[in-house]
Amino acid sequence: MTVELLQRPSATSLLPFVRMALLEDAPWGDLTSETLVHVDTHSVAHLCAREPGVFCGEDLFRLAMRQESDVVVDVFCRDGQAFEAGDTLAIATGSARAILRAERVALNFTQRLSAIATETTRYVAAAAGTRARIVDTRKTTPGLRLLERYAVRCGGGRNHRYSLSDAVLVKDNHLASVTGDVTAALLAMKARLPHTAHVEVEVDRLDQLEPVLAAGVDTVLLDNFSLEDMQTAVRQIAGRALAEASGNVRLELVPAIAATGVDLISVGALTHSVRALDLGLDFHVMPQM
């Protein structure tokens, strides 16, 4: 699956991430390379897969390599494309010092984002044949949400609200702060919102459904429902709102959750619990002319 151009973060939006990471990794230069590797040494570095997966981070890899010199980068695996162990995903050619300085940053980005894309693909496959969409959450690495959300899309998943400013999501702690009638409180809240604002409300019991639905909300989040109660809730909602399943969703449970008829399955594990994919940078020194 190739991610459409309009879904990709622009190079302008990615550049601050790369510059910040390079500055963090070598604030006063690369002490090892600058004292060991000759300034005129050139290398060819192959980004190789040690295990299968789905790639994400081609633009970040390219930007990281190009920040310090005129390193030439050829990418052979595009974002959202599956690869096998042993595949060469990209090649960087140029100053050995520049490639060595960018190596860790380039790998950190591609390993983590490819891991997220790969894990998302597994969840999407588990829900195949149902109406359920796999969506992410705000449980992202602080400062890296733009990148990690993109990786979810590369794996075939969808994005939930990006931030607290994008949509209303009334959770249990919000409701615990409401005194009086829940329906009336939600209607009063909606009256203060822009007409374009999406309103979602979390419930954790079946008896909470009708007061929430009576307020005309757009989505109901079924938090930690049993499969039986989830199926009952979907029948009760009956298309009056979208039904979202959430709470400790594990891969092996996705087929059963999707079979209940929910519209969305939100999975925090896509971004907060992935193991970095095993990618490596193999160096070959070019002969001096």
How much is the radius of gyration in Å? 23 Å
The largest sheet is: 6 strands, parallel
Q: Could you tell me the strand content as a percent range?
A: 15-25%
Shape: elongated
* Reported CATH architecture of the largest domain: Alpha-Beta Barrel
Tell me what you see in this structure.
The chain has 289 residues and is α/β, with parallel strands linked by helices. The protein is 39% helix and 19% strand. The chain has 2 domains: 5-124 and 275-285, Aldehyde Oxidoreductase, domain 3 (Alpha-Beta Complex); 128-272, Alpha-Beta Barrel (TIM Barrel). Strand 9, helix 9 and strand 10 form a beta-alpha-beta unit. Helix 1 (11-25) packs across helix 3, helix 3 (58-66) packs antiparallel against helix 4 (96-126) and helix 4 crosses helix 5 (145-154).
How is the topology of this model organized?
Layout: H1 11-25, H2 31-36, E1 42-49, E2 53-54, H3 58-66, E3 72-75, E4 82-83, E5 88-95, H4 96-126, E6 133-135, H5 145-154, E7 168-170, H6 172-176, H7 182-191, E8 199-203, H8 209-213, E9 219-223, H9 227-237, E10 242-246, H10 254-259, E11 264-266, H11 269-272, E12 279-285
Parallel strand pairs: 6-11, 7-8, 8-9, 9-10, 10-11
Antiparallel strand pairs: 1-5, 1-12, 2-4, 3-5
Helix pairs in contact: 1-3, 1-4, 3-4, 4-5
Brief digest:
This protein is of the alpha/beta class. Helix content is 39%, strand content 19%.
List keywords for this structure.
single chain; 11 helices; alpha/beta; Aldehyde Oxidoreductase, domain 3; TIM Barrel; six-stranded parallel β-sheet; 19% strand; four-stranded antiparallel β-sheet
